[in-house]
Design a protein that fits this description.
- The protein is 73% helix and 0% strand.
- It has one domain (2-115).
- Helix 2 crosses helix 4.
- It has helices at 2-10, 13-55, 63-72, 93-115.
- The protein is elongated and about 75 Å long.
- The N and C termini lie far apart (73 Å).
């Protein structure tokens, strides 16, 4: 008797709607995870370029041009971060300074750990 009720329920529109909602929530969660991964890859790419420029003692203002060059040649990991006006996030001088400070802190800690 219970099996028949379950079979009847599985063909109702309410059941199908509940399944569709469940599948949609899983898809949204996966999309959010993928978007976060792309954002992280983009930030990693920007930090790598900033580190490269800093090692060469280039002015921090050159990071924008370097990023644009890499996007132009399709060799960047942050093309998906490109804004509608073709600018990239984190290129403002305050953002660049914050990233340089973070890189300097990591290098400082590594040096201290190596000395110990």
């Amino acid at each position: 008797m219970k099996v028949d009720a379950i079979k009847k329920h599985t063909v109702t529109s309410d059941h199908k709607l509940a399944l569709a909602a469940q599948n949609a929530s899983v898809s949204i969660e996966q999309a959010a995870i993928k978007a976060a991964e792309k954002e992280r890859e983009g930030v990693d790419g920007l930090m790598t370029n900033l580190y490269y420029s800093a090692k060469r003692n280039e002015p921090s203002s050159s990071i924008s041009d370097l990023n644009k060059l890499l996007v132009h040649h399709s060799v960047s990991r942050f093309g998906s971060m490109m804004r509608a006006d073709k600018s990239l996030p984190y290129e403002h001088h305050e953002s660049v300074r914050d990233m340089l400070d973070a890189i300097a802190e990591v290098v400082r800690r590594q040096l201290i750990d190596n000395i110990r």
